[in-house]
Amino acid sequence: MAYLHTHPPMTLGRVHARAGWLLPVVAVAFVLLAVGAAADHLPWDQAIHDWVIDHRTPWADTVAKRVSWFGSTYVVLSVSAVAAALAWRRCPRLALAIVIVALARPLTEFALKELVGRERPVGDRLVRGRGPSFPSGHPYATAASWGVLPLVAALYVRRRATWWALAVAAWLLVVGVAASRVWLGVHWTSDIVAGVLLAVLGVRAAELLISHIEAWRTPRR
Q: 3-state class of 141 per DSSP?
């Protein structure tokens, strides 16, 4: 069990070690989308938005609302609190990192939204959306809360298959929440793609934070 915690089956750090180009590409893609959003020069967004509106059904609308709920503020804060509480019992350093990530996430999201200043889609919204549009905060928040559950689960589970199931489910939820925001008409497609890219970078930052806390807490010989 301890081995699974200290050496999880997969981390972004391990991916970066094998494919050093991947995270820089993610960062560059996010910056390019941000520049395009600020300049209002992402022409595919309107076409996708119109297609979504034309293909809505009551059943799909209901599913999108329920999936989007998993990325709402109340839910993600509750999940982060529960994750930190569970982690504290066996790894206070992980609990501290979860709390720091949970607090830093809305600050970075707000700063980026204000910096880019992109307007949300006008009309045809199925739920309310407040503030600037880019990047979409729901997938970012989902990754910062539900996305840390595999790290917490590694403190308790022994089976690698169980860990993989939780990790895949967490990232499928991130993608599902992201897609739901476009379907509900409160974000452009580029917003949610940027939100997922930001989530990847945020998870990597969380891994680095955990490593630094671990190094700081480890006594020097």
A: helix
**Domains of the chain (ranges, CATH numbers):** 2-53+60-217 (1.20.144)
What sign has the CA pseudo-torsion 92, 93, 96, 97? negative
Is the preceding omega at residue 121 within 30 degrees of 0, hence cis? no
- Report how far Cα 54 is from the mean position of its chain's Cα atoms: 28
Residue/partner pairs of 44-53 with CB below 8 Å, 24 or more apart? 44/189, 44/190, 45/188, 45/189, 45/190, 48/182, 48/188, 48/189, 49/121, 49/124, 49/182, 49/185, 49/188, 49/189, 52/182, 52/183, 52/185, 53/124, 53/185
Percent of the chain with pLDDT over 90: 43
**pLDDT higher than 50, residue 221:** no
pTM: 0.82
Q: Quick one: which of 173, 68, 175 has its CA closest to 126?
A: 68
CA distance 98 to 218: 19
Q: What is the pLDDT of residue 19?
A: 65
